[in-house]
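stage 2 :: seqdesign
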């Protein structure tokens, strides 16, 4: 009596395999010659293409990963505001104080948003 297991067929018992009919054995041989794969699916013999594994899902971000991303975004925004503040100071003129005040307001708003986002992140991860 022939036997089959995932990727194998033979006339002798195969560990983890099942008994198959002579017709299934011949189908398995023909399929393997054609590049197909012998499989046992839910205890049933099947000859078909080699199964394509599902892609691995990326791991969920950790608190450290999420905090690093949040910090990097914040630092980039603050660097841009610092550069704008310096540019306004260098340009001088009658509107310098107004420009710097507007940038200071943007800085304070961004800092408050960062603190809110960081607190939410801590709550999300229970840290």
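stage 2 :: out
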């Amino acid at each position: 009596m022939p036997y089959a297991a995932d990727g194998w067929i033979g006339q002798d018992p195969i560990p983890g395999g099942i008994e198959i009919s002579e017709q299934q054995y011949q189908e398995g041989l023909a399929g393997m010659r054609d590049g197909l794969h012998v499989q046992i699916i839910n205890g049933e013999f099947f000859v078909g293409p080699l199964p394509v594994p599902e892609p691995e899902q990326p791991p969920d971000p950790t608190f450290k990963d999420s905090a690093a991303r949040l910090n990097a975004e914040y630092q980039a925004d603050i660097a841009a505001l610092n550069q704008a503040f310096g540019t306004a100071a260098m340009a001088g003129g009658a509107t310098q104080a107004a420009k710097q005040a507007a940038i200071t307001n943007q800085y304070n708003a961004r800092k408050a948003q960062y603190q809110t986002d960081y607190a939410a992140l801590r709550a999300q991860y229970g840290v």
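stage 3 :: structure notes
- The first strand starts at residue 3 and ends at 5.
- The chain is about 55% helix and 15% strand.
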